[in-house]
Amino acid sequence: SSHVLRGPTSANPLSMAPTAKLGAAIAGVSCCWLLGLIAAGHKGTSRARSGILRRARRRGDKESGAGPGRAMAAAAARGAGRARAYWLRCDLRVDDNQALQAACDGAASLLPVYVFNPSVFNVPTLAGARKSSARRARFLLESVACLRKKLESMGSGLAVLVGKPQDALPKLCDSCDSVFVTQGICSEETTDEALVAKRLKGDLKPVWGGTLYDKNECGVNPNNVPLLFTNFRNRAEASGRIRNPIDAPKELPPLPVSDSEELSKALSFLPALEELGYEPEEAAAAARDDPRAVLPFKGGEEAALARIQKWIWDDDRLKEYFEIRNGMKGEGYSSKLSPWLALGCVSPRRIWKEAKRYEAERTKNKSTYWLVFELTWRDFFMYMALSQGDKIFLRGGVIGDKSPWKGDRAALESWKEGRTGDPLVDANMRELKATGFMSNRGRQNVASYLIFNLGVDWRYGAAHFEEHLLDYDPCANWGNWVAAAGLTGQRVNRFNTKKQLNDYDPQRVYVNHWAGGAKPRIMEAFQAGAARQGQEQDGDDSGAGALGQLKGHHEVAVEKARAERESEEEGQTLPGQRGVDGRGQTGPECHPLSTSFQI
Fold this sequence. Notes:
The protein has 23 helices and seven strands. By secondary structure, it is mainly alpha-helical. α15 crosses α20 and α17 crosses α22 (509-515).
């Protein structure tokens, strides 16, 4: 990597830079799994966040065009204006938020709403997994609380409800002409949208957002995306377009005038973990950060922008990202921005813009490009999910493979608990369970081990990752896992975990940090060989997404009667998991769903 260049005018170049350079500087989205490399919770959060957004405002309309503040003023001058609502999901920010801008444009009033749906928290899914751990739910609660604080500081607020969106939103938004929402990609989100739209008095208006390349500017047909990342990347870089991020609104439309007691309560309510279905003991444990963790992750846009400031500028890590990205222990080896990306606390375009500013002010090299490369990986899995639909959640994947899986419940549980006898696998799985995070290198190895060494159905691994990963995103998680299993028709990477351990943890610093002193049970019966075919290789980052950030699982359309019959005949299901799809659903009543990713 090239030498370090310090900012010429300040130790805090981000806050001193011109607003036109306000970018999206988040590194660490590696292979969609590096998406989980974001951090939170350090001093200077408010300073970094306000500095970033101040520069964006000063930039004015030079790059992003007229903002919502100008549009609102023009609408008021015309005497126009409508009552609007904005349904937030995985877009928990005010900066570079396309749906928020659309909702503000011409609105006389705006009601931001977030709905906590109990069915996506402490609810069983597949092979003993749940939709979300309490720790991941805590990160979401922090992100929602941060957004409410920001909206209130802008003269607005955030109504928070617990329930099904199709029940909660129509009641609260019955006087709204339209409800805006960031368009969902996977079937869980799109099903929710359809159910809500059916019961609203006004219109539901989905707005595309959350990707580096907009849907119609990604260089390919978004409904027929190449299944090879290299093809997608080449076409995106050659003929796609990355737009400048949109500045946060200078002002927001006022909240609607209402004497509704329900609305009044919703504007101050935030559920506790116990109200989302978690036992007090698990909720208390989730409130504590493991001291061995790479970071004390804290949810919210403020923490996300602070992490950008620290990792890219204060610590000057971006210049060496390519060389250090395969680390497993410590705070600095990656941006660790993926948890914030998954909930939309920061946008990929803001990260891209900050990387461009870094190139202009400090240095431009392979590492600075690689950050954008990883963000492109994230887009690839989002567009693959859009193109392939529920195929990414089915046992046979995109190609519809019917080969049997021979791994049993004991093998799966040993993997989940970090007691397989493989030091690298066990250390990574223990880190995941204790902290909700795992490095990109770790994710690639543990996924390969579950699939090829233990012969366990890949969907069980994806479901476990969905439960625990702070950076869970359905597209990246399920897309990476289905690719890792060789079910997209592309090259398969089978990782040699012993060689990987020697290459990436030769002194056993990481392994001893997480598995030192333990004597895991060696599962010789499950290490006899792969249950499926795959090419034995070191496992570089170029094939099938290298498992990137496996984030989350979606309640995919079930294989229904045929899958149920095949599962019974082949005898591969785990106890209590007959005829399941990627969401752990059974029987003909199943419907496609998904949560938001992550990536």
